[in-house]
Amino acid sequence: MHIRHYHPQDHIIRRSEQSSAMFYVLRGTVKVVSHDNEATYYEIKENNFFGDVGVLYRVPRSMDVLAKNRCTIAILSGEDLVKVMEQSPEMAKAIGYQTQERYQMYLKRRQSISARMTLDGCTGSPDQCKDDPISENFVK
């Protein structure tokens, strides 16, 4: 695990990147935004984590995450996360439960996007067919 400091508007996660770590907000607030940074879908405040679905389910990042203000973030690699979960069954249960809920939400978004792409006649990947197909369908 390592600690990183971010300034306002710094990218922490970029949509479509490969997932190799989970993030825990120690100080500050981050925001999940549209691909053009025009819309904020929701904010993640201190003592909350994100990036868990990507690292545990090995799927690419589905959203852009920026620092809203000065932030201090703990970054846990996939290996570090597994160690933490092995050492603390309670932590593993809490992370696992929330991650499973988020993954189900991710799958629903993907399914909705695929259905819309079919209706729109798109034959490429979701990222090739609409300006922001993943985040347009985001429902908190």
UniProtKB/TrEMBL annotation:
Superkingdom: Eukaryota
Protein name in the entry: Cyclic nucleotide-binding domain-containing protein
One Gene Ontology term of the molecular function aspect: intracellularly cyclic nucleotide-activated monoatomic cation channel activity
UniProt entry tagged with the keyword Membrane: no
Upper taxonomic lineage: Eukaryota, Fungi, Fungi incertae sedis, Mucoromycota, Mortierellomycotina
Domain Cyclic nucleotide-binding: 1-102
Keyword terms: Ion channel, Ion transport, Ligand-gated ion channel, Transport
